[in-house]
Amino acid sequence: MSIIGIDIGSTTTKIIEYNKKKLINSEILKNRNTEEILEEFLQSNNINISDIEKIVVTGIGANKFKSNKYNIPMKTVEEFEAIATGGLNLANKKEGLIVSVGTGTALIRVNKGGIKHLGGTRSWCWNTIYAMQKIS
What's the domain range around 16? Predict the structure, then answer.
């Protein structure tokens, strides 16, 4: 059985198929209708609906994915929790500072006290600041 993970960002959607042992398929797609992206991913990777255990959704656009016409168990994970957990998992660490860089950035500290979002930016913010400096 596979798990489908979907990270719906502000400009792209990242989607993976994963079983409990390894990453099977992954794609990064330009944002559009999330259900269409899921269907395209399933078709292009020959994934049978009956082989999917659950769908896990995160990211700034996770609320856009409301329909579950396949009747597969679905879970939404808060974006900072997903970044923190994934970062620690990839680094094989129990605590640390995780930095996610995309259209926006996020700095997240994870330790025995829990997960704390320290700050971050959106790229449009930096572009605006840069433009304002050029004008003045």
Answer: 2-76
Burial of 75 (0-12, 13-18, 19+ CB in 10 A): exposed
Strands 2-8 and 52-58: parallel
Indicate the SS3 state at residue 123: helix
List pLDDT tens digits, range 68-86: 778 889 999 998 899 898 8
Q: Which two tokens stand for residue 136?
A: 């003045």
Residue 83 resides in a domain = no
Alpha-carbon span 37 to 13, nearest angstrom:
8
Provide the pLDDT confidence category of residue 63 given band limits of 50, 70 and 90.
confident
**Quick one: tokens of 17?**
């198929």
Distance of CA 130 to the CA centre of its chain: 28
